[in-house]
Every structure is written in C-alpha cells, then in structure tokens.
TrEMBL record:
It comes from the Eukaryota. GO terms for biological process: proteolysis. This is Brachyurin-like. PROSITE patterns: TRYPSIN_DOM. InterPro entries: Peptidase_S1_PA, Peptidase_S1_PA_chymotrypsin, Trypsin_dom. Transmembrane segments: none annotated. PANTHER family: BCDNA.GH08420-RELATED, SERINE PROTEASE-RELATED.
C-alpha cells in the first residue's frame, strides 16, 4: 500500500499493457482512500488492502468488471466451494514448532481452502533485479498450509494465505494485496 497524497493518485481501468493506450482504458482521479487501519500490524504486509473512492460513477464494460467477493456468511460461502476431496495432498514433514505469536488463519476457512487453486494477478516485478512487468500478469497457485509458511517466513497472520505455483511460479514482488480468484 502506497501512502501518497490523494491528489496525486489515479486509477487506470481496463488496462492490460502499461505502454499502449487503447479505447478500453478509463482514467479516474481518486477522491478518497480508505487504508486498513491495521495495515502492517502486527507484522509486515498484514491487512494489505485499501479502497479508493472515485469522484464519479464508473461504467462496467467488456474490459472493466467488478471483483466478485465471497458471501460474508461463512456457512453460505463454504456451501459454494467445489468438492476437492479427490485432490491429492502432498507429503508433508513435521516441522518444529515456531510462531510469530500472532493468530494464524481462521481455522475453519483456512482448512477448507488449503490445497485449492486460485488465480492471482498483478503488476509486480518479474525478476530479482526489480524489473517491472509491462503487462498485467496472472498465474494459478495452490494455497498452502499457513503453519508451514509461518515456520519458513514468520509473517503469517489470520488475514493472509500462503501459496505456491508449479515450477516455482507465483505472485511477483509487489503483488501482495492483489486479487486472488478461486478457480
């Protein structure tokens, strides 16, 4: 999340390539931002989400669409999940206990989401040198067990999930807080 003067913020919708203009793109100045009050608390990247209010109504199109959010009721959300009982579970090894002393993922929801595939999207860097991608990128990843990730990275909290893609593919640096869509 960038903490910048709202007068300097804008949103470019319908964009897929940073270096080409198309009629599908619409630019809006930002009227107001709403950054999660507990961003970076109690650990880095926790609650990495913000909303921006636009000063005018925006129309959806073939290139601009809303992000579909899950049902807020846990039981109704769970009822919409596809069956994954036939998904092979990877072999795991027992890890020594380690924790960042922050609560881990919601026990019911996280257990239901582990090993499911999601698509993640973003404009983050595409290599270790920090090169920015020119096109919106996406990849399918599998949600992993948060306790394992907490042991390796020490950052996991109840508002996060950990993922890994095949062949080492995954979200890019700078993509935290970007959309993840259940497949």
């Amino acid at each position: 999340i960038v903490r910048a003067d709202v007068k300097k913020l804008g949103v470019l919708l319908g964009d897929h390539n940073l270096y080409s203009l198309t009629p599908s793109q619409k630019f809006f100045q930002v009227e107001r931002t709403f950054i999660h009050p507990h961003f970076n608390v109690p650990s880095p990247l926790n609650n990495d989400v913000a909303l921006m209010k636009l000063p005018q109504i925006m129309s959806f199109s073939r290139y601009i669409a809303p992000i579909c959010l899950p049902h807020p009721d846990v039981h109704q959300f769970v009822a919409t999940l596809p069956d994954v009982s036939d998904i092979p579970r990877p072999q795991t090894t027992e890890l020594p206990y380690y924790s960042t002393s922050v609560p881990l993922a919601h026990p019911v929801l996280h257990d239901l989401m582990v090993y499911r595939n999601v698509s993640v999207f973003g404009w983050g860097t595409i290599d270790d040198a920090g090169t920015l991608g020119t096109k919106l990128r996406g990849v399918s990843v599998q949600i992993l067990n948060n306790q394992q990730c907490d042991w390796y990275y020490g950052l996991m909290t109840s508002t996060m999930f950990c993922s890994s893609g095949s062949g080492g593919h995954g979200p890019c640096q700078g993509d935290s807080g970007s959309p993840a869509q259940l497949l």
